[in-house]
Design a protein that fits this description.
The complex is a heterodimer. Chain A has 14 helices and two strands. By secondary structure, chain A is an all-alpha fold. A two-stranded antiparallel ribbon of chain A has the order 1-2. The longest helix of chain A has 36 residues. By secondary structure, chain B is mainly alpha-helical. Chain B starts with a helix and ends with a helix. The chains are: A mainly alpha, B mainly alpha.
Chain lengths: 319, 463
Amino acid sequence: MESDTVLRPLPRSMDATSTEKALAKRPRIGETIIEGLLFLAGVVSILTTIGIVWVLASQALLFFTTEEVSIIKFFTGTEWIPALGQFGIWSLVTATLMISAIAMLVALPAGLATAIYLSEYASPRTRGTLKPILEVLAGIPTVVYGYFALTFMTPLLRQIFGVDNVQVFNTASAGMVVGILIIPMVTSLSEDALHSVPNSLRQAAYGLGATKLETAIRVVVPAALSGITAAFVVAISRAIGETMIVAIAAGAGPKFTFNPFESAETMTGHIVRISGGDLSYDSIDYNSIFAIGLLLFLITLVLNVISRFIVGRFREEYE
Amino acid sequence: MSEKIERDPENYPTGAAQQSQIAKRHRTGSLGRTLFLLATASAVIVLTVLLLTIINQSFGLTAVQSEVPEEVLVQRYNDEQKQSAPDLDSLPKPALVAILQEQISRGLGRRLERDQRFFEDQLVFEDPVLWQEVCASAEPSAGCTLPARSQENVVALVQERVVVPTVVESWFLFDSIFNREEIILEAAEKYPDAELVFRSWMTGEFVASPQSSTPELAGVRTALLGTLWVIAITMIVAFPLGVGAAIYLEEYADQEKWYNRVIQTNINNLAGVPSIIYGMLGLAIFVRALESITSGAAFGVVDAGKTANGRTVLAAGLTLALLILPIIIISSQESIRAVPSSLRKASLGLGATRWQTIWNHVLPNALPGILTGTILSMSRAIGETAPLVVIGASTFITVDPSGPFSKFTVLPIQIFQWTTRPQSVFRNIAAAAIIVLLILLVLLNATAVYMRNRSAKKQGQLS
């Protein structure tokens, strides 16, 4: 149709400029509709965010306006016993923080060291073999890691530290496996940061007589520090939000403890356990998981924003 | 100390001191290198240990105790018929039916016969008159029309109803290989009646059987089909939406406009939201608020007693679709961005409209990348457990899911359920289910890698 219009000889009354004008002005309804539809597809993500915030906030509001609950006790209490009307978030938060801390103790050194090796030492061929292995590790479902924690890590810890000292469900085992889970993430993000450090910096260091290690530790890592820090922050957020490993290996039942060999329940583990049962709508249990979810959402959101801020604010410009 | 010396040129070491300092620095250097290499190797070690743990649990010796041992039945048949059949499988059908007649109650026999007859021409448990009535009634039993049971089918029935093998204890694969003697002694002492058999928990039968509360008979068919159904819904929803949004952001959106920047930032933030939060969104919106749609009530397709109040395949698929949407959008954006702008300019210069350019030139070039990203996000969705537990996937389902409005369970949830059972036999079948899940994921990822390599080659030819 369109080509017809274009190829038809120009009417005598029309000169070239007016034809151009006519073509430019012609409304293309199909094009507009398509653009509109594509825009709507983009809007779905906004709706998702609005949905998340609205759902979490409205249900959490219902929870906080219940008689048994006081918002002050929620943020200061250390006992979470719904049956007794005690909702102190700290017993869940401490378990979450403890598992995240253990996870980071495993993932940070291992992840950063792997990233340095891959970026600074490994030959292209070694990289070509190792990177897919890391990708495989990253692609294994978390429920499999949970199984691994319960059937391998826990028995191992119990063998090392004694069956009497380590409970069957414990935060140490869960935390270490969460650490293993996020190693590929720390590695891949840190490696990107290391990789973007310009080669001239390395060559300058070599030229001054620095060894490879000195170059890596004193020149490349500091130059990539913002990217590496951002990777760590994202990894912490991932560890906090991790669910299945802790649901399987850390135990059921909130407990305010700092002993990594005891069982404890994280925020995510509690949500999964409560919602896995037969949950009746508008019960205080149902509303309470949304309050926990809101806190979890805010924590991870803040961490992600901080991470992006670090990248944007402290990026070293070399070129 | 050494820092100070290095920085002060006046005190810089010379001669032997310098040599020894350089040697020391090089030693530190190689030590560092070794440490980094060890850290990297640990990833490989962890992966190996993980896989070995799963394999270790999926195979191994088991002590099996039967209510009526198979040999006793075979022996009796051989004595009576002067035969030498080696095992139950080689017995003829009439002999097997005779065993059933002798060992199971008449009521159970009737039920089995109504499900499917034993012989075409004769009834074993059922009264012929009653049979006629049942078959002539408004709701005839399945047995009235189905062909008779095969010999294998009857063998399975004898196994299930008469022999009833129960695994009383199972051992790990490596123990079974290296400590075989000890296990034999231990089993003989603890379970004198039991038989020690090497068992692979991951079998074809395991994949094909529906779920069951007895671990020896349980399988993953319902969970596997549930996974396939949910993923189908997820991809139908997420793929067009994700690619659409990516096209909008890359090809149409004016980054100066505030709303486009909001969309982009928002997508990046959504990618970092923990998956369990999506589960809560799904629970409140798809399961609860939109119950009439997700349960199928709005379309009048509800099977009484079959629905799960919105806890259906559809609700799960939509939840996972929202979860992987940011991943699909981000990876598709990258592929679209990688298409050289000269292609766009050439097409626009020839008078094509914007959409014609995108559809005929940008998308075909970006497609391999888009598909690779989509497949990777699909494997993420297949492995997701937490959101589906939160929206309330049923945990015990023996009927195959039959459509978007069915109750369902998925493989990861099945694994989660079995892992959390205290009996060790459930750990064995959980490991077997993990193998099924991993095989599924490996197949998907192999496809993605294959496509990536092929498109890389193709682009190599172009340039």
